[in-house]
Design goal:
The structure is a single chain. By secondary structure, the chain is an alpha+beta fold. Helices cover about 35% and strands about 20% of the residues. It has an eight-stranded antiparallel beta sheet with strand order 5-6-8-7-9-4-3-10. Strands 1-2 form a two-stranded antiparallel sheet. The longest helix is centred in the first third of the chain and has 41 residues. It is elongated, with a radius of gyration of 32 Å.
Amino acid sequence: MTQVKRATGRPMLTRRMQRYSLLKTAFCLLVISGLIAVLLHNDPFPSVRRAAIRQRRRAEQQRDFREPGDKKSVESEGEQGNGQEILQDGGRRFVFELQSLVNGATGKIVIETKPLWAPLGVQHFHELMDDHFYEQAKFFRVVPDFVVQFGIAADPSKNRPKAIKDDPVLQTNARGTLTYATSGANTRSTQLFINTKSSGNSFLDKMGFAPIGVVTSGMEYVDAIYAGYGEQPDQGKIQRDGNTYLDKEFPLLSFISKTQDTAADPAKDEANGEN
């Protein structure tokens, strides 16, 4: 009987050990998986990651065979062709030459469009700029510490009443941003304003005003736009008679004498403030 008991006890003990071993193995695998997940999430080797990034940047620099004077920052680098400079985000950079500023001064401002902010508005603005629509247009509405507004053609025959659909507001109306003026939903056409308030006009965001670009250089000239007439010019008369009406009634208004893509501007580096 004793021998029988020993013989039957051994396989029972082995099965228990097998089950215990399997449970222990499963638990260890679970713990190891959890540790790996935590390590991957927390990036325990930031110095290794930074070193890899530095190495990749050095490799990219070694592959760049341009002359040092031809290099630009990665963020603003773009392609040039057909008289246009296309930035990496699909935007473009334009120079506005301003005249009749305070005390008769002149100056240049540089505007970069931002398609990621407002693709419909930017595309429409590019079309207007390619047609030189804004040349000789006057800043007919100037509210200090708020906005300067322009965009009614100097020649009434060139006005474009057709409106485009609204873009969602993805960027706040900070100082220096360029935004379409509207008279309601889906009424954007050619009129634009530059926000001049130092703290921005964020309340315009909730009203549906979506910035399409930003002044990257020359805000001191925007601040020097003549503000003596305030909001006196009649927009209806400007639409009908253009600069003939403004020159007679408001001769001191500042205006845009010339516009061009920076790719076609021989002095673009100076105008762009070395950006």
